[in-house]
Description:
Elements: E1 14-17, E2 23-26, E3 30-37, E4 40-45, E5 51-61, E6 64-73, E7 79-87, E8 99-102, E9 106-109
Amino acid sequence: MGRLFIETLSGARIFKCKFCKVDSASHEDIVSKDFNGRFGRAYLFRNAVNITLGPTQERMLVSGLHEVNDIYCSSCQQILGWRYEKAYDESQKYKEGMFILEKERMLKDGW
């Protein structure tokens, strides 16, 4: 194994992994705060950093059937949420390629 590359985000308000405090997303990349995950409230982001993707799975969510990948912190391997790979419903296609980060798994830095 090689050296772990950790990306540091710039900006005043950053979301970090609750477990190891590595940057995960910027407040500027929030698309919506109106989501729910396994652990409660969740946010939809355009971009996330310092993550690894799990295998693609079909999952029935509140908004219908989607192909998703669980996302894990690349530093501590804790599950943080999921990435929308594919939406079957035309009205949900806007989520493709976006990330759900669960509020319970995040810390806010700079608030």
